Amino acid sequence: MSSVVIIAGGEFPKKEYPRQILRDADSIICCDGNALKAFLRNRKAIFGEDFRQPDAVVGDLDSMPAKLLDEYGDLLVHIEEQDDNDLAKAFHYVLDHIPGAALITFLAITGKREDHTLGNFGQLMEFARHLESIGSSISLQAVSDYSTMLPVTDSCELFVGEGRTVSIFSPDNSLNIKSEGLVWQTGGVVFDNWWQASLNRSDADLVRLRFSRKSIALVILD
Q1: Cβ neighbours of residue 184 under 8 Å, at least 6 residues apart?
Q2: ∠ CA 179-183-187 to the nearest 5 degrees?
Q3: What is the pTM of this model?
Q4: Which of 31, 62, 129, 214 would be a feasible disulfide site paired with 35, CB 3.0-4.6 Å?
Q5: Confidence grade of residue 82 (pLDDT, cut at 50, 70, 90)
Q6: pLDDT digits (tens, 9 = 90+) for 98-115
Q7: Hey, which residues does 31 pair with through a beta bridge?
């Protein structure tokens, strides 16, 4: 079983934790040209003299400079259709071409553009729902310099550590999520706006979330 990192076109991580995840990845997938350029700019700082290549660059390639098209032609996976964005194309590429993947970590999905950030949060939840629908056991997370993001589709236990900021978001205003291990109980929260269950705090190492039914939500830890 392997770990996969998908790099998007947002703010490339500068802190050691997300960079270590990238360093340890079995496979690295870049979303189109901007992600590839960021990877190449930071490659020496992360890998030293081991100039590791990404395993694939997936997308519509609209942001790929001609020089990189020539240099990295063997790694390019050109998907022209516009029903999915490059993040979704990279995600489905992993499902189709890396059958041993056990963990997919998304890097650089936040920063630079707020509309992309919000859209990517929604994509994370949809990716988790898709994995559940096909009976996949692949775990998903997104990591930045500021937080770890975990999409969930049902009741779960999360070992987060006491004292962390815990925010819960869901587009499903009929979903009820009861919690244990948080300072403020979420059972009465109606998810009719983004702020409703944000900026909570764990008062135990283990946080339990009990869904009233299967749905989608995003847990963001500081």
Answers
A1: 200, 201
A2: 30
A3: 0.93
A4: 31
A5: low
A6: 989 999 999 999 988 898
A7: 58
